[in-house]
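task queued by scheduler; priority normal; single chain, no ligands, no partner chains; default sampling; output format set to structure tokens
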Amino acid sequence: MPLPLNGSRHTFRAVILPYHPGSTAGLYFNSVVRLLASLALLLTVGVVAAQPGPGAPLTLGDARAHADRIAHDDAIVASKQADALTQVHAARDRALAIDELRHALSEPALGGARSIEDGAERELQARAGLSFADVRGSGGRAWRRCLDLVRSEHVRGDDATDCIRSAAADTWGSGLALVALAIPPPAVSYASAEEQLRVHPGDAGALRDLAALQLATADYEGTMARLQPLRGTYDVDLTVAVALLGLGRLDEAEAVLVALVLREPARPEAHFNLAELADTRRYESPKRAWITTQDWRAFIHFRAFLCARGAMTLRSTLDSWRLAADGAEMAEHRLTGGSHWWWATDAARPRPFLAQDLLPPHMRDDEGARTGPSSTCAEVMSSAAINGTSASSDGADRARLPLPKGCACRAAAGERTDAAVPLAAVAIALALARRRLSRPASSAAVGHE
């Protein structure tokens, strides 16, 4: 079963476009999907049976280039003249160079170099002070070195985010901390916030600012310690839950988020984070009952976020409106086999799961406005409070929630779902391509918050 990178589905999110069942284009499109899905299954069998094969040879020139790149980056990181942003960029580039060498040094059958030219290791040692053994064992260390620099210098930006994500790649679910809603970092430096706290010890605003800056640089334990005196308020507890996600303590984070939903169900942020968590936790077990339960939880809480979105006070750089709407549509499709935006030619088109004004512009259409939604926000919020707040379990008996009528995913608890993944992936990819090609210009804009 393929897993999303670092426990976050956003690395392969797809969006679906409706096609009309009775139209000629819809019939042709459906036939093409079925044909390509069958071909994908055959190709998947071949890919599973075959290994990537050997890559390009590792030559002396390649070894010199990588060694010089690593040595140059080492010099920048150690330099007292370079600013923090430049140092983090160099640390990230160094980690990438080492990763490239590690891949070349892997087994040829796994994609490594088909041959290594004599003297390549000597060049690497002479220019960068690294042996092949050092390279094979230093990939994770290189990324953690970059992360340490991000934390110590309180650096933010794309390079810092790459270091955070890659350094925690072996911590399941930690990538959720990069997309979850929490107290946003202030437009002040860490030093300014520290000075504010020094002048006004115990100041709640300064503590929040420092904690948000620490969260943005993946200092999750520091974030929790900083916020401990302020526990009990919605925003603070929400941010603590995100820090727990960053540490991979998913059960603890889920318990905090469930408590927030029960305490303040009209606030949208905890619904969004719970939905993202469920959308990730569906990959923790191959059992169909567990996967379906998590899909249902994601569907419940994504819709609840959309209903309560007007009360949102914590903003992020991500378009949470679109992420939640697309996430709900994908969860609905996994549960029922269709949605208002993607359905079989021999079935009636489902109604949209929410009213048009609650959906982002790219999901609105005349048919949805005519038929109306399948659920009201009163029903959605009630379902989120009643059915969406049973915490997941670490044991063999995973928590199970009431499933929606018509759910196509009911199966025995031990049934695996791996075989269905290639076909669904092809169908989703084709639908995504069709949406991009067919979307009218007037609906191409995305509604940002």
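post-processing summary
- The chain has three domains: 60-163, 173-248, 262-435.
- The first helix runs from residue 24 to 49.
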